[in-house]
Amino acid sequence: MRGRINGLPWLKTIQARGAARRCVVVPPPPMSAVGRCRCRRARHRAASPHCCCESCRSLPPAPRQICRQGLSPGERPEPRRRSTMDAKATAAEAFVREPAAGSTLNVLGITHIYKATGAETGGSFSLWESVVPPGAGVPPHIHAREDEGFYVLSGELVIEFEGQSAPHRVAPGGFFFGARGRRHAIRNVGDKPARVLVFCAPSCGLDQMFAELDAATAAGTPEMAKVVAITAKYGVTIEAPADPPH
Fold first, then answer.
1. How confident is the model over 171-197, as pLDDT tens digits?
2. How many domains does the chain have?
3. Domain check: are 40 and 103 in the same one?
C-alpha cells in the first residue's frame, strides 16, 4: 500500500521471518526533524563526497559552490591590475593655494589665474579664475572631452548656449554649466571686468591648450585660423564668429 502526505511518500517496508514483504504508511516526522535530517545527510555527503549509501543517493547532486568573484572553493583571485585611472587618482596630493598664488595666462585678452591644474589633481579637474575685460569673451565653441562650470564672482556675463533661443544674463552668485558636446559662448557686456571661477572636468588638455594660446597671444592677437587650429588639437571646435549677444 502506498500513501502520500503533504506531497511526499512516507513508506516503511516490513518483512517478518518467513513472511512476504509489505509496505505500510507511517506518519511523517516533524518538519524540524526533517530539516535536521537533511542537514545531517548533507554534511555527511560533504565530508564523504564519494559515499554511495542509500541516504546519500536520495539527496540531489550538490551544487558547485561559487563565490561572488566566480571562484570555486580553494581558488584564489588574481591580483587586481591597476588601471591608468587608478594611477592618476593616486598621483594627486593634497595642497593649499594662497589667494595671490597660482600660474597666470593671457588667453586672447582674458586672464586665467590657476587654482588647480590637471597635473596637480591627477587629471580629475582644473580650476581657475578668469578675469574678463569689458567687451571681451569667448566665441561659440563646443568641447568634445570635458564639461565646464562657470560661477560668477563679480560683474555680469551674457551667455549663449545651445537649446536656448535667447541669451542669459548671469549676475554674481549665478552659475552656468557648459556640457560637453553643446555649443556655448560667453561675453562681458558690462563696463567693469567680470571675475568668474571656472571648473573643468576631467582635465583632458585644456591647460595645455590655454598655454599655447598664451604663447600665441604674446606676439599680438593671433589670427582666427591659428586659434581654430590650436583648439582643434584638444577637441574644442570654434564656430564661425557671430554677432555678439546683447
1. 999 999 999 999 999 999 999 999 999
2. 2
3. no
